[in-house]
């Protein structure tokens, strides 16, 4: 009786549902996003989910990354000039750029220098009226050392803005393409301030981007309409909907059923089925990431490069790629992924050779070594199963006489404890690039400033540091390439990490989706995407 | 009657204080640093970490934080979620209608099927129907929700199978229904979009079945037990001897008394449904408070978690109070005896 009841109810509802799908005539793309955005002002947050919902659809930056690549292209700035000493960047702003006209705001003027000044001063100046609004934490702005770097921002005229830096910094332009550097409407901010609704500014975004925000039903849907006056031409789609679907299996079912067109983060276990599914076009691309095992180079015997190299040689990385990444990864030999400029393909990896590893350990005077391997408790793009990876490394090390214990902590604790300079053992972690600049990997993860912080190897090696600092301050691109290539050679000699893998990013889309490109930064950009009639 | 109500209300105060203490300490006992979680692999400097902890008020002694929490509750302020930067109260009530809508449908579904099934099983005690029903209800009761939900999605929503119902969400993404009441069935009716109500109703079917399965099993079993007990009473035998129709005996005399037990169960289930819709909401991407709580716990969003627990517990306490009052309406003897 119960079963019959269920079937009858479902059948009736199903018929109702089928009648509903012909409702809309507008060209609507549905993206089954993996989570809810924290808000809509990208500078306040750090999650990719938030950037997808805000900066990548609603806002523009002075310069941007070309869709599907790490190449910087002009956006709200038509061009820029750099002073001889590399400390002044003058941006020439694009004219005639319209902000969104929405249900809650009608702009009276075009984009100009005031909007640029507002967007950066809010983050930079503690006395700015918007600085403390919505928590007032600008983690990316701080994390990219902007407060130390930017000396002043000057409005030269309505369409010219000058950034004066305290020191030359070559990655500055790449940083300007990052989400936190999105440009907001100063006029809208003033209107909200006048109305006494400052908090709404971060929840109902107004930008110049290809899609304008319409409505957000929390944890359910975000709706956008194409910006009719977009400076680069109206988007081929009329509407864009983010249908928030946290479970990967459910996302796949929705994709199959045609309830969404693009889904992120498929279950690795579903990839095989997706590849042979006629309802799905499984796109893939090498990720802009690296997964690594960082030794604590401050603690003996790991302060000896020979020991680190020996342990690297004991690890069978090919086996890890097969078992942990199920083939969807590539062995990493350098600390930056091959898709980043200056990747040095001439470096030689510490090849898998247990006998040579034993010999090297003996040469370093190490025997009966016991240590720990830290396994992350979460799945990340650069490491889908850290526990399994740790077990494989543990077994490999046992073959060369090294006894390792696997430890793990809750994710927040893991991140915190792994920073300790007196940490015991080697840490599994990784990184996904923010701006396509090698500095974003090498300085953040291996620079002396990161010791006790993001440099989990606690490795501060002067020859390496000199190279990356020099590369940071020179504006000669060819020179920078040479310096970073050299830095990778030093890295391989010193082996502060066992570089494990660069993972492949999969993106299942519906066959009717046209010209969707995988974003190397892990984001989802829908301008330029179309749907077949 | 007034004394009865006052006694019941008086008992709520210590219970409520206990809840605030549990809610406050529960999230703080979990390992995990909220600032580190917020920063991810990038991390924050120790100075910035200390600054953020101070901004959030976590540098103060625990008793002081708890006291601020209590004072905030008295002023109707549960703090600000540090992931969304929005007031917790607002965050909660934006999502609450979705949970209420689903829980109401689930409890109606559970009662509509569980109640008659339990009655019939009791009347036909020992029959094949009785054994089958009890077997099914035991299965329903033991069903892992996540598995059950995915199974139904694959069976009813997959294009490779029956393809009858939508997979998840509250309404098709093609309909742009404005939020007016927060209840999608009502909002879709109020909207101009043709077919929106049908879509909203269709989206409710699978989550209702999944969330209502366990309460349905419980209601069926409890109704059966209560009815069996009542049907063995002397007055039922007397009614039979008087020649009353089976419908009058079962439907009016026995059921009225059995309802006391059944309403208790339904009342308890309402609490369970409000607080326990977490898995169902996660599987069906249902934007209710369960899913919000899970997200808040994983982000160690202290204010959201402690505020959410207090609000859910308060609602459950109120529902139970209402159930107590309903006893009195169904059987006034209880009211008199208690007061």
UniProtKB/TrEMBL annotation, chain B:
Repeat as UniProt keyword: no
UniProt-listed InterPro entries: BPD_transp_1_N, MetI-like, MetI-like_sf
Keywords on record: Cell membrane, Membrane, Transmembrane, Transmembrane helix, Transport
TM annotation in the entry: 9-27, 100-123, 135-156, 200-220, 258-284, 304-330
Residue stretches making up the ABC transmembrane type-1 domain: 96-327
PANTHER family named in the record: DIPEPTIDE TRANSPORT SYSTEM PERMEASE PROTEIN DPPB-RELATED
Family: Belongs to the binding-protein-dependent transport system permease family.
Protein name: ABC transporter permease subunit
Native organism: Kiloniella laminariae
Lineage: Bacteria, Pseudomonadati, Pseudomonadota, Alphaproteobacteria, Rhodospirillales
């Amino acid at each position: 009786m119960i079963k019959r009841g269920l079937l009858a109810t479902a059948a009736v509802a199903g018929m109702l549902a089928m009648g509903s799908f012909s409702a809309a005539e507008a060209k609507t793309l549905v993206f089954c996003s993996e989570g809810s955005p924290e808000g809509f002002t990208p500078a306040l947050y750090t999650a990719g989910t938030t950037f997808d919902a805000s900066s990548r659809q609603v806002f523009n930056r002075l310069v941007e990354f070309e869709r599907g690549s790490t190449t910087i292209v002009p956006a709200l700035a038509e061009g820029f000039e750099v002073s001889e000493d590399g400390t002044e960047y003058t941006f020439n702003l694009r004219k005639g750029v319209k902000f969104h006209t929405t249900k809650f705001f009608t702009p009276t003027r075009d984009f100009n220098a005031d909007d640029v000044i507002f967007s950066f001063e809010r983050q930079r100046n503690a006395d700015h009226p918007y600085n403390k609004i919505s928590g007032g934490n600008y983690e990316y702005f701080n994390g990219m050392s902007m407060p130390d770097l930017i000396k002043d921002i000057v409005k030269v005229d309505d369409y010219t803005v000058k950034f004066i830096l305290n020191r030359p910094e070559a990655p500055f332009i790449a940083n300007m393409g990052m989400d936190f550097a999105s440009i907001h409407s100063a006029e809208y901010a003033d209107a909200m301030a006048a109305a006494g609704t400052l908090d709404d500014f971060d929840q109902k975004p107004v930008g110049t981007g290809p899609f304008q925000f319409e409505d957000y039903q929390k944890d359910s849907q975000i709706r956008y309409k194409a910006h009719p006056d977009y400076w680069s031409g109206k988007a081929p789609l009329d509407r864009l909907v983010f249908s928030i679907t946290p479970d990967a299996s459910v996302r796949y079912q929705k994709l199959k059923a045609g309830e969404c067109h693009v889904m992120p983060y498929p279950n690795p276990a579903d990839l095989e089925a997706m590849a042979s599914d006629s309802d799905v076009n499984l796109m893939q691309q090498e990720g802009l990431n690296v997964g690594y095992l960082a030794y604590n180079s401050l603690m003996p015997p790991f302060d000896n490069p020979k020991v680190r190299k020996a342990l690297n040689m004991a690890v069978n990385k090919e086996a890890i790629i097969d078992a942990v990444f199920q083939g969807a990864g590539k062995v990493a030999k350098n600390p930056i992924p091959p898709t980043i400029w200056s990747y040095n393909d001439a470096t030689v990896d510490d090849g898998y050779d247990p006998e040579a590893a034993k010999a090297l350990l003996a040469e370093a005077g190490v025997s009966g070594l016991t240590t720990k391997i830290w396994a992350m408790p979460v799945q990340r793009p650069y490491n889908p199963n850290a526990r399994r990876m740790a077990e494989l490394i543990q077994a490999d090390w046992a073959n060369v006489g090294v006894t390792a214990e696997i430890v793990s902590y809750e994710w927040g604790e893991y991140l915190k404890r792994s920073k300790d300079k007196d940490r015991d053992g080697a840490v599994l972690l990784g990184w996904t690039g923010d701006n396509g600049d090698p500095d974003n990997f090498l300085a953040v993860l291996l620079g002396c400033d990161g010791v006790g912080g993001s440099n989990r190897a606690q490795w501060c090696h002067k020859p390496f540091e000199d190279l990356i600092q020099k590369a940071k301050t020179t504006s000669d691109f060819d020179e920078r390439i040479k310096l970073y290539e050299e830095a990778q050679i030093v890295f391989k000699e010193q082996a502060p990490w066992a570089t494990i893998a660069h993972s492949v990013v999969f993106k299942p889309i519906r066959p009717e989706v046209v010209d969707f490109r995988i974003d190397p930064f892990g984001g989802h950009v829908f301008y330029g995407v179309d749907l077949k009639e | 009657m007034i004394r009865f109500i006052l006694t019941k209300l008086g008992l709520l105060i210590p219970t409520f204080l206990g809840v605030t203490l549990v809610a406050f300490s529960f999230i703080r006992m979990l390992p995990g640093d909220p600032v580190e979680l917020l920063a991810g692999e990038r991390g924050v400097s120790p100075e910035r970490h200390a600054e953020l902890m101070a901004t959030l008020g976590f540098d103060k002694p625990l008793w002081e934080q708890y006291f601020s929490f209590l004072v905030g509750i008295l002023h109707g302020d549960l703090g600000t979620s540090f992931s969304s930067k929005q007031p917790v109260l607002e965050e909660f009530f934006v999502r609450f209608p979705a949970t209420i809508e689903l829980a109401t449908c689930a409890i109606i579904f559970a009662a509509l099927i569980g109640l008659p099934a339990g009655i019939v099983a009791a009347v036909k005690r020992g029959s094949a129907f009785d054994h089958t029903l009890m077997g099914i209800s035991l299965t329903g009761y033991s069903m892992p929700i996540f598995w059950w939900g995915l199974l139904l999605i694959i069976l009813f929503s997959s294009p490779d199978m029956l393809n009858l119902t939508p997979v998840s969400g509250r309404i098709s993404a093609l309909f742009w229904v404005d939020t007016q009441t927060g209840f999608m069935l009502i909002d879709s009716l109020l909207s101009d979009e043709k077919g929106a109500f049908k879509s909203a109703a269709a989206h409710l079917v699978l989550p209702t079945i999944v969330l209502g399965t366990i309460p349905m099993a419980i209601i069926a079993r409890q109704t059966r037990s209560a009815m069996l007990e009542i049907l063995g009473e002397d007055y039922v035998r007397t009614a039979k001897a008087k020649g009353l129709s089976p419908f009058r005996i079962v439907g009016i005399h026995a059921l009225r008394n059995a309802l006391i037990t059944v309403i208790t169960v339904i009342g308890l289930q309402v609490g369970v449904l409000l607080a326990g819709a977490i898995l169902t909401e996660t599987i069906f991407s249902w934007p209710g408070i369960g899913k919000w709580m899970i997200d808040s716990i994983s982000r160690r969003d202290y204010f959201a978690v402690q505020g959410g627990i207090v609000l859910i517990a308060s609602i459950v306490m109120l529902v139970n109070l209402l159930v107590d009052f309903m006893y009195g309406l169904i059987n006034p003897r209880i009211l008199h005896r208690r007061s």
